[in-house]
Structure formats: C-alpha cells, structure tokens
Amino acid sequence: MLGLLFLWLAAALAWWLFLRWPYPDDAMARRACIVWGCAAALLPMLLGLIIRCDRQAHLEQVTHDRRGILARRVTGALGGYQIGVAAVLALALLLFYLALWPLPRWLIVLLASLPLLLAYAAGRRMPYNYFMAFRTNPVDANALRLDEGDLAVFLAFVAFGPLLAAFFYVYRAWLLQPVVGATLLGVGVGIAAVLQLVYRRRDPRLAAPPAEAVVLLVGIPLGLWMAVQPGVEPLLGLGLTAGLVMAALLLHRGAPIKLVPLLGFAAGLLLLVGLTHINVWLGRMGLILLVIACWRWRSTLFRPWLPFWMIWLLLLISLILLRWTALSPWLVRGAFAAAVVALLIWVARTPKSPPEKP
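Predicted structure:
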C-alpha cells in the first residue's frame, strides 16, 4: 500500500506541474514536459513490479516462468497507463478550450488517478489473459514465452510517454490555442478513426493501425513544422517529410523491420550526434560504432530500404549544393522535390516481389 501511495503522489505531482498552462516561459515548459514524460515511462513500470497479477500462484505453478509473468505484468501496466495518459490529456485540453481553467488541485489529483487505475487493472489481468489466449493445451509451460515482438511492444509503451511529452512541448503554441488546437485534435482523431476502420476491414485481427499509418500521423506534422521554423533550412523539413512518406510506403509494401539492427543503428547515430558536442574523440568512437552496425546488418538495414536511403542521399547532395554553390535555393529545393516525387512514384508502381519460399 505504501508503494501505491507513493506512485499516486508522484503521478499527481507530475500532472500538477504539467497542467500549469499556459507556461510562463520556455524553461518552465521544458521542465514540466520532462517530468511528465519521465513519469509516464517510470511510474507504470514500478507499478508492474510491485503488484501481483490475477492467479499468479497458479501461473507460476503451471509455467514456472516468473520472468515471463513479470514481463507481461509490466507491459500491461505500461499499456494501461498510456491509454489513461492520452485520455486525460485530451480531457484537459477540452477543459482548457472551454475556459474552465486553472483546474482545482483536487481535480488534478483525480485525473492523475485514472492512468494509475488503468495501469493497475491491465497489469493484473494481462499475464493470465495472455496465458489463456496463447496456450496450446491445458498445461502449457511456453504460453508466456517472450520474443522480439514482445520487446518491440514494451519499448513502444515505454517511449510513448516521453514522445507525447516532446510532441506537446514542440506544438504547445498551437495546441493551447482553442481554435487551432481543437482543429488539429479533431483532424488527428478523424484520420486515426478512418485508418482504423480501413485496416480493420482488411484484417479484423488488427487492434490498431499498422506501423505505416503511425509513421504518417506522427511524421508528416513534424516535417511540416520543421519546414516553417525560422532559421531552419526548409529543405530539412521537406526531406524529413519525404523520408517518412517513403518509409510508410515501404512498410506498406512489406519491407522488414528487425528490432536489434534498428536499435544498433539508432544507438550509433545518437552517439555520433551527441558525443560530437562533448568530445571529438567520443564522436569518432560513435562514428566507428555506427559503421560497424551498418556493416554488420547491411542486408537488413539497407537492401530492403534502398529507396529510403536514396532520399537522404539526395537531401545531403542538395544541402551541399546550397552551401557550396551559387545556385538559387528555390531551384535546388524544386529539383529535390521533383526527384523525390519521381522516386515515390517509381517505388509505388514497382510490382511487389513474391515472398521467398522457405
């Protein structure tokens, strides 16, 4: 009980800091979003560690897999909490648009309780439900086995809170304007609902839009936002948008995603970018790790995704032309856009290769 009380107080504090809209300055906004995003990732994980799932003694006796039970419990708590976070954020924005602001502290405490209640319920139910859904016989010791897909779901739930906090921090000037924010939320919810209906008709087993739909919903606003930022070359936003559209197209056409190579590439890229600002030798170490990751998983990272990397190569060439030549910026941007559109049309019209026979 003390652990649950501590998590409840921590969640209430994070929400109280976050819901102090409008923020007086950028430093306050950054601090509030960081605390809120970290709480969304850490609190449900701690909750999943301290609670017990339904019929846990029976599951331990049948499966002898305490690690699998713990993993399902934590994943369920994470998923339930993130659903609650999205619901509370939408409700808070609605109250803000209706000028019912600032919220009383007792209401903030109640709102902070909803994600924790959903996390508690999902964490308790998920292991036993998962066991009953995937067992192949009445006594199946492998029903809770973990694979790469489970790791991907876990990482997605962990990253959801920080990414949502970063999204709000970047777009808060738009989201906190009643007309603009309500329009953006309405359009986003409408597109998500349409995609949900379309993909559910194609495959009733899908519970959410697939990866390509998520890439488009998240990536296109980010690219367009970067394209209109003062002091930032518009070509960067255009290139980011084009790259994400190409990634969505390749995903729709069945390009494979392997979690370990993707994480290795991302880690090397982050080291290269981040450590370069700290020490040049550490940056070179990050470059070496990135090259090793690219060479080690070249068949997974590059061959199926060649058109995606071609867009980034075109972007690099265009940026070099802008920096080192006297060509008109609009000519370079237009040529890049024409090349990208041609590449997208070519990929879309290319027949899919038949699946490899085992």
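Summary: The chain has 14 helices and no strands.
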